[in-house]
């Protein structure tokens, strides 16, 4: 769990304590993007109960199974009223993977909830930008860190 002064895992450059943490603890997300960011941070910090709660009741799984995915970073590509397109990077063994998803959100009683998403998972190309959001090529970034 990051401490109060740590930069938020969602890549906002704001402290976790004033970005995603309050939303994970029950504050109302002001936008679909804010909710999406908080859900990414919840995956990073292991807030499984919150992940289930922030799911839309129509599509909510009976339980969210904990994973120990090694997330590399989040980049928001396009943020609409109720859709957010993003790229998230993660490690799968020694491979740098890119998750490209367009998520849909809907409001329930004034709270944004995650409805569903269309996602595409692929191995990051060596010469394309690293999915961690550093702006560097993958081969000079997260690929180098792998064993
Ligand atoms: Zn955040
Ligand atoms: Zn990287």
Automatic annotation (TrEMBL):
> Which positions fall inside the YchJ-like middle NTF2-like domain?
31-117
InterPro entries xrefs: NTF2-like_dom_sf, SEC_C_motif, YchJ-like_M
Highest taxon in the source lineage: Bacteria
Q: Name the Pfam families on file.
A: SEC-C (PF02810), YchJ_M-like (PF17775)
Q: SUPFAM superfamilies annotated for this entry?
A: NTF2-like (SSF54427), Sec-C motif (SSF103642)
The protein's name is: YchJ-like middle NTF2-like domain-containing protein
Give the source species.
Mariprofundus erugo
